[in-house]
Design goal:
By secondary structure, the protein is an all-alpha fold. Helices cover about 85% and strands about 0% of the residues. The longest helix is centred in the N-terminal third of the chain and has 43 residues. The protein is globular and about 70 Å long. The protein starts with a helix and ends with a helix.
Length: about 325
Amino acid sequence: MKAEQDRKREEKEKPMAAYEPIVSSILNIIISVSIVLYNKRIFQVLHFPAPVTLSAIHSLFGYSLLSVFNVFGAFEAKSIDRPTIIKQAGIWGLSVSFDLLSLKYNSVGFFQIAKLTMLPLSAVLNMYLTGDKPSNYVMLALGWISLGVAVTSVTDVQVNFAGCVFAGIAVCCTVLNQVKAGQIMKENGCSSVQFTHALTLWSGLILSIAGPVVDFAATGIRLDEWLSDNCDLPLVTGVVVTSLLGVMVNITAYWAIKTNGAVTYQVLGQVKNCGIIIIGFIMFAYPVLAKNVFGMIVAITGACAYVYAKILDQRAAGASAMKQ
């Protein structure tokens, strides 16, 4: 009886499953572009001085929203070993906090291009952990990306030492977070929603304590004093919108990876890069310099070449396995 019910449910879900890759990809692109640009608006237009505290708000908002979904049976909460999830929450907190610090102190273009250095760093980390050496095509593409990032860095009129430091730390923490998150989800058999629900409570608590201190050290501005003079409806609305987008971007990212595969998701990443950079130049009226644009084009074409090289590697590995 149960097998028959499962079969009928699968038949009903098949038509919906056919559209999942397209829907998840479109949603992830729209939300990813929106959150970067909206966060930049909060920093540049509304002059919010506390990016780490904003990360704490995002985390606690996400936990509260997912807890409501859990109460209504949208998903089943997953218990993960407490020391493991607290340690991961700390890594994730560093990742998102320095990501927002990078966004605050850099132009949207440099912020996005700097994140492409995650590809060479991931390759090096994977080689260290697994001993797998990248192919020559992959190495060439990674070198091309690094050249593009270097050209963008030296030609961006808004580039500064603090922004570069924050961007570098953000990239390292994000790569580590992605590697560890994948391992934890696989070991505990949990979905992206379950993992996000378990993670956001602890990351929110950690960032709530550390946020005001780190923000004051980075900006020299006390958040309570700033809010007493500047808290208004546009700011509150902006924080709520970015908090909602923060939850949605995590869920749609894991959904897109699950339905499309990792390689296709990397292609989507380059679409997002182009969208964020182009709209960022328009929204925030950044000066358009030929050398800076050239560096961005080099970095993005290098990222596309990297994806293509990985596809070739996978095809070669598949052909080799079939011969054996």
